[in-house]
Design brief:
single chain; 216 residues; mainly alpha; Tetracycline Repressor, domain 2; 2 domains; 74% helix; globular
Length: 216
């Protein structure tokens, strides 16, 4: 292959990636200012300095862009958080540490993302054709958490009390439930409940003395 052609192709790909990143950055700015329902493709593209054509060459719709932004800012951050977390001696201690990091994540200004996520879910409830997009977000979280659960039990030579995906669903439900209650009633539901409730409700289900999950 002609190396000059390969270079040109790589450059086009890099330019498209840059355009996509700028659109995502502009969308974050607009969504934070207007909310999901109040935002438009026109305002996003104007903020990014692009045309509508540039937008639709990267995203099929405002909804698709919104879900990718959530993936980048929440799911990818969640994955990095798990990978960078200091390793504890046992899986139970690791779970408490992760729960504390969940609380710190909300304290560090991730609240706007959660507010947008709730707006996204309300939109999906009114527009069933859109529901498959936000569903992909939780599927990814469940899959990642289920793999970690399986790893913990495998290393301990044990089996989880219920399917690992179901345990992952329960862990996610606690995260979302606490976040929602803290959002509207922070004095009654403080963020420091995270490690306490995770340990109380799920700590006893982990194999005694099991090491933290190995990365796969």
């Amino acid at each position: 292959m002609n190396p000059n052609v390969e270079t040109r192709r790589r450059t086009r790909a890099e330019k498209q990636a840059e355009t996509r990143e700028r659109l995502l950055g502009a969308a974050e700015e607009v969504f934070r200012r207007r909310g999901f329902a109040g935002s438009t493709v026109e305002e996003i593209t104007e903020t990014a300095g692009f045309s509508r054509g540039a937008f639709y060459s990267n995203f099929e719709s405002r909804e698709q862009l919104f879900i990718e932004l959530l993936h980048r800012r929440v799911y990818d951050e969640f994955t990095r958080m798990l990978g960078d977390a200091p390793r504890k001696r046992t899986a139970r201690a690791q779970m408490r540490s992760t729960a504390r990091e969940f609380a710190r994540r909300y304290e560090r200004g991730q609240r706007w993302l959660f507010e947008l996520w709730l707006e996204c879910l309300a939109y999906a409830a009114r527009h069933p054709e859109f529901a498959s997009l936000p569903a992909t977000f939780w599927r990814g979280n469940r899959e990642l958490t289920a793999r970690m659960i399986e790893s913990v039990y495998e290393q301990a030579g044990a089996r989880p009390p219920i399917a690992s995906r179901d345990l992952a669903t329960a862990l996610t439900a606690l995260d979302i439930g606490l976040a929602i209650q803290n959002l509207v009633d922070p004095e009654e539901v403080p963020l420091d409940l995270y490690p306490k409730l995770y340990d109380l409700l799920f700590g006893g289900l982990l194999p005694e003395g099991a090491p933290p999950a190995k990365s796969r």
